Amino acid sequence: MNFLRKYFSADNTNKINPALLWDFGTIKPDYKKNKKIIIERVVEYGSLEDWNVILSIYGEEEVVLTIKTLTGISNQSLNFACKLFNLKRKDFKCYTKQPWRKAHWN
């Protein structure tokens, strides 16, 4: 994660982009109860500022453990997480778990 340190700040006043949490509406999301969905949205669609917020809220270890259990993240997000945390693709559930259905055209 050293190559992105300049983008991450200790400023914890930033909030996650509300567009990522559109289904919560006007209520403030419970960051403990909805940890998995919040981290998944930031991994898939978040900016570096959003990454900074989840890392400051949950800590690096908790974010990594949660990302490893996600099953539906894209290859691009998976590669970014691998580079960011210096991990291998086979460590992630979304990489090792095969889809139960084949696509229609296969």
Commentary on this structure:
This protein has 106 residues and is mostly helical. The protein has one domain (2-96). Helix content is 44%, strand content 0%. It contains five helices and no strands. The chain has helices at 35-45, 48-58, 60-69, 75-85, 93-96. α1 packs antiparallel against α2 (48-58) and α2 crosses α3. The longest helix has 11 residues, at 35-45. The protein is globular. The model has no long low-confidence stretch (mean pLDDT 80).
How does the major sheet shape up?
A: none
What is the helix tally? 5
Report the uncertain regions.
none
| Share of residues in strands | under 5%
**Number of folding domains?**
1
User: Distance between the terminal alpha carbons, to the nearest Å?
Assistant: 38 Å
Strand elements, count: 0
Mean pLDDT: 80
Order of helices and strands: HHHHH
Query: What is the SS-derived class?
Result: mainly alpha
Could you give the topology of this structure?
Layout: H1 35-45, H2 48-58, H3 60-69, H4 75-85, H5 93-96
Helix pairs in contact: 1-2, 2-3
